[in-house]
Amino acid sequence: MTHERDALITGIGLVSSLGEGPAAHWAALTDPGGFRPVLDAASFPPWTLHPAPPLELDRQIPKRGDQRQMEPWQRLGTYAAGLALDAAGVKGQPALLERMEMIVAAGGGERDPAADAGILTDLPHAENPEALLNQRLLSDLRPTLFLAQLSNLLAGNISIVHGVVGGSRSFMGEEQAGADAIRVAVARIAAGQGDLFLVGAALAPVRPEVLLHYEMGGMLTKKPWQPVWQRQDEGGGMALGAIGCFLVIESRAHAATREATPLARIAAVATDRCRRRPGEAAANAARQFAALEGRFDPAHSAIISAASGAPLVTAEERAWLATTGLPVRAAATALGHTMEAAFPAAIALAAMALHHGQLFPPLEAAETPMTTPLHHALATGWGHWRSEALALLSRA
Predict the structure, then answer these.
(1) Rg, C-alpha atoms of the chain
(2) Are 388 and 274 in contact (CB under 8 A)?
(3) 175, 188, 286, 297: which has the fewest Cβ within 10 Å?
(4) Percent of the chain at pLDDT above 90?
(5) Is 311 exposed, middle or buried (0-12, 13-18, 19+ CB in 10 A)?
(6) How far apart are alpha carbons 44 and 65 in whole angstroms?
(7) Cβ atoms within 10 Å of 114's Cβ, excluding its own
(8) What confidence category does residue 100 fall into, taking pLDDT thresholds of 50, 70 and 90?
(9) Beta-carbon contacts of residue 114 (< 8 Å; ≥ 6 apart)
(10) Which CATH architecture has domain 7-111+149-394?
C-alpha cells in the first residue's frame, strides 16, 4: 500500500573525494579491484584528510562573481545542491523552485587563520588573558568577515544561484544539525506542511583552524590512515572529509504528479542526545531501533553507519551495531567524517544502494558481505560529541 505523504528521495547531489554525483560514488564503492580511498596526507601532516575533488564550478555556479564571493564550503554546498536539483528534474523550473523549501545544516563558515594564530601566540604570555582576548577580537575581526561566516549564507547562495526561494531554515550544531534537517523535512511532508524540500550540508575541512579545533578536543587520528573500524583497535580518531551533500525529498503524491522517479523512501527518522556516560548512546540507539521492529526484513536489510571514528563513542557504536546482526558499512571510511553532512551522506549512500537493489561490498575486513537483495537500509548518525540518530529507508 502506498501513502501520498510518504517522503521520497528523488534527487541526490553528492560531491566528495570520490568524485561528483551518485554514479561516480557507486563506481568507487563497487570497484572490482576493491575500494580505494582518496586521501591527502601531505597538506597538514600528521593529519590525513579526504580532499575535495576538482570541480568545473561553471557547470553549477555559472557566474564567476558568485564563485569568488563564496568560501570553499559554500561552493561545495551550492554545487552539490545544483546536482541534486538536476537529478530530481527541477532545475530551471520556476513553478517548482518558487515553492521548494530548503533546510541547510552548516557550520559557522571559515575563520581568519592569521588572527587565530596571533591570539593563540600571545595568550600564554599575557598578564590578563581575558582582556587580551577581548581586545584582539574587537580589533582583529573585520565586520565583513563576521557577516561572511553566517551559516545561512549557504542557503542564500543556493537561493541566488539556483532560484530556490520557497523558504529556508539553517541548522547549526555539527552532526545533530544534519540529522534534524532530514527529520524536519520528513516530518513536515508527513504533516502536509510541504511537498518539496532541498536538504543538505557541506564541509571543507582542509583548513588549519578546523583541524586545530578538533585536535584540541583529542578527536583526530594522527596515525597513518586506516578504515574506521580498524582504526578503533589503535585508539580511534577522526579523518575529516570535504563534502557537499544535498537531497531532494518530496511527497509521493507530488513526485507522482510530475512523474519523478524516486530513488528510495525515508520511512522514519529519529534523533536524540545524551550526556554520553558509558552506555547511554547505545541505549538511545536501542530504543530507536526497537521502535522500527517489524518495519523491515532483517534478511534483506543493512546499515550505513555515519560513525565518526572518534575515540570511545565509535567503539560503543561498533559494539551496539554488532547486536543488530545486520551487515554494516562505515560511510566515513569512504568519505571521511563530514560533521553536519555525515547523516545526510549516510542517507544518500543508503538510497543509492536501495536504488541498485544491493549493498556495496565491504570497505574493510571487519565488514561482512551481503549476498541477498537489499530492500531496506538503516542509517545511523552518532555525533563525535553528542547526537544519536537513526533512519529507516526502503525501496521506493
Answers:
(1) 21
(2) yes
(3) 297
(4) 88
(5) middle
(6) 30
(7) 9
(8) very high
(9) none
(10) 3-Layer(aba) Sandwich (3.40)
| Rounded (5°) CA angle 63-69-73 | 100
Q: Can you read off the three cell numbers belonging to residue 17?
A: 573525494
Distance CA 238, CA 383 (A): 11
Cα(202)–Cα(228) distance, integer angstroms: 21
**CA–CA separation, 211 vs 238, rounded Å?**
10
Distance of CA 9 to the CA centre of its chain: 15
Q: How far is CA 177 from CA 20, 25, 53, 186, 272, in A?
A: 24, 24, 24, 14, 12
Tens digit of pLDDT for each residue in 268-314? 999 999 999 999 999 999 999 999 999 999 999 999 999 999 999 99
Q: What tens digit of pLDDT does each residue of 289-299 get?
A: 999 999 999 99
DSSP code at position 374: P
Does the pLDDT at position 57 exceed 70? yes
- Contacts of 43-47 with CB under 8 Å at 24 or more apart are 43/206, 44/206, 44/208, 44/211, 46/222, 46/223, 47/211, 47/215, 47/220, 47/221, 47/222, 47/239, 47/240
C-alpha cell at 157: 547562495
Q: Which residues contact 183 (CB under 8 A, 6 or more apart)?
A: 269, 270, 271, 389
Does residue 141 surpass a pLDDT of 90?
A: no
Distance CA 147, CA 153 (A): 9
Is residue 304 classed exposed, middle or buried when 0-12, 13-18 and 19+ CB atoms within 10 A define those classes?
A: buried
Model pLDDT for residues 319-346, shown as the tens digit of each residue: 999 999 999 999 999 999 999 999 999 9
CB atoms within 10 A of CB 286: 16
CA quadruple 97, 101, 103, 109: dihedral sign = positive
Find out whether 106 and 199 touch, Cβ atoms under 8 Å: no
